[in-house]
Amino acid sequence: MKRKREMETKTEIRSAIEELSMLTKAHSAAVADVAHISTKPFLHVCTLILQVLDKIGPTMAVLRQDIHQNIQRLEILLESDPTMYSNLIEMLKKEESEGNARKGSSCSKAFLWLTRSMDFMAALLQRLVKEPEQNMEQAVQESYNVTLKPRHGWISSAAFKVALKLVPDNKTFISLIMKKDQNYENLKEDMQTLISLLVPLLEHIHSILRFYRLDRLKSS
User: Which domain holds residue 141?
Assistant: First the structure.
């Protein structure tokens, strides 16, 4: 209950900053020669990022559903065997050794697409910080082009293109992700802090995904 009340007094971005800080500390504290990404904190960060994504509106409905399903898949796995699946890297190793990593319902693919979804959000936040006056539709489109589009097939790309027209304007989106007692400069600082924590983590994850040859997988 205490954690829930604390979450209600913070923006999703500030909550994500706290979770990422803890995840980074846990990663740094891990044995140097053992790759480790804690599953539960990672999924919590994804959930918070998902809540920010919700503020963009119906245009992100398909992506939101994919993120939610991938989070659920990994949560079920973690509950089934907390010892084995508390580390996402061990999960990759297990599925790779069993030959299941590239199968449609694999948890490795869920991890991959969650990472790519966070790539999109990181790119979008970077654009909003760098060019706050940029048209929101353009910012979403350009962020999509450099993150998700190269890995999406024509069905996913077409669905995104149709829904893009529903993106809110900049002022509406900014007002939705701010608390009432917050101003834009505070929000900008929070976004910059989130980016500084999120981007290095994503780069680290992508290096691991490349090692397991999962980085080039595409959707329909």
Answer: 2-211
